[in-house]
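P.,

For your records, the input lines for the assembly:
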Amino acid sequence: MAGAAVTSGRGRRQGWAPYLLLVPSLVFLAVFFATPMFQAFGLAFQAPGGGYGLGAVQRMIGDVRFGRALTTTLLLVVAIIPIQFALAMGMALVVNARLKGTDLWLYVFALPLGISELAAGIVWFSIFTEQGWLNSFLQQVGLVERPFVFLSYERPVLLLLAIVLAEAWRATAVIMIILIAGLQGIPRDFTEAADVFGADAWRRLRYVTLPLLKPSIRVALILRTILAFQTFATVLALAGSATNVLAGEAYRWYQSLRDPRVAAAYASLILLLSVASTVFFLALIRTNEERLT
Amino acid sequence: MSVVDEARRPPEPADTGRPARARPARGSPAARRRRARRLTYAAAVVLSAWVLIPIYLITVTAFTPRRVSYQFPKPLVPTELSGETVSFFARSAGVLPALGRSVMVAVVTLGLSTLLGAPAGYALARYRFRGKEAYRLLILSTRAFPVVILSIPLAVNFITWGIYDTVISVALMHTALALPFTVLITSSIFVSVPRDLEEAAQTLGCTPARAFVRVVLPLALPGLAAASIFTFVLSWNEVFAAVILTLRNRTLPALVLSGLSRSPLPFRFAAAFFLLAPSLIVIFVIRRYLLGLWGRVSR
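Structure tokens returned:
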């Protein structure tokens, strides 16, 4: 939107030149984005002998691991989003408070931005594994007598918690950056005015900052939810086969069981869930500009 | 439990709801502000610890001898440092070729997405044309889709085309992932280069192409470099598509992931350090552009 606002007044009109500049990216996206998207559904509904059928979808739903993969993925999404938003909001507010060394705080908070799912998964594995850092610490301060097994399929809640922590650690930075950009768009006068009228920090946040931050919050929510539906390497690195998620099942069906149709059925399901969540957030958080100005 | 507890810290260091302490100037705005500031510093320290402690732990693990990985309880402060674990990882079968492929995939991704995306970004920033908003919306809407999942149907295509299990096929997938970001980021970078300068160059006799190369490009270069570095990291880190689209010619993350359950602990820990070390440097290099890169894209 920023680009449109800046150029709408003075942009030049030059026939076909802009279209020529767009064509390469459009062609590429048509071949490597739009086509495979439809192919995913095509593949999922393909019958083994040719023609179409529900075979792959039935195999997916009938699989013993399907239910657990679906619930784990949904639970992850539900648990990750609020924790990450709380953390990201805290970081964004700290950066926006312009403490001494703002650049340094921002750098530290943004560090995980470049850390991959896989690396984050192994990092937290080194913490939570039986002879890992957490147990080392707990034993040294005398809280446990022998290492406690955190990552076991017998403790699904702890397992989920470990994955949520790893994901929160890794991917909070993206949300923070979006929120900071949003915060910087809010004129200081607004919160200062609220301060003058006696609003405390919590009320300034609740009634001034958050409503004005709605567009950024919405974008961050959508982005993060879609990424959470694709959670894969973190789970594999932390839990191995002790738990499973939708993307992990897609990988297993493709790689180990060599059935791209069922893998495509999983991919289609993730696609549908992502689009549904986007629509949900767009409907849930309406940004009525009038109220903001 | 220190690390775990920090995650659940309340995010906003608001000073409400605290029991009133008997201090004379408590209610005064100045005192209130000073206390809020102290709390903000405390929050900054706690949040930094939450980010830094895991990085510290994996770094320590990577630079202690292999046997320490199996030792329990581990010393929280390392007693001896060595490059043994890291060199064990680097010398393991397939690691160096995979590292080379990762770099190649990232470079090709970077080149392709810039080549395809930067012209579109320039068009969005500088021209008015019919369908501009539709194009922008199209690019934005790609974010509603889990792109890496598309690697499964793409794998079937790549097998048909005979480019399965190659650097090119992974790079094409990563370009599909990076392209929308490249378009939006380059567009916001070109918007920030004043049009007047470009027009002045043209008035003084430059052709549009020359004005672009001599005036716009040098001014946009730092931003473009930061965006490129980010694309590089995006590709370097991506593992789902990489592991689906390769079999023998794994990229580094794909190699580590596919052998994860079989690999010894020191291998995994050194791999994690290897995978995250570049990002520590990269984020430092592009730290001034972070807000511009991601912030502007989100509007």
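Two observations worth noting. The CA atoms of residues 26 and 168 of chain B lie 65 Å apart. Chain B has two domains: 2-62, 93-297.

Regards
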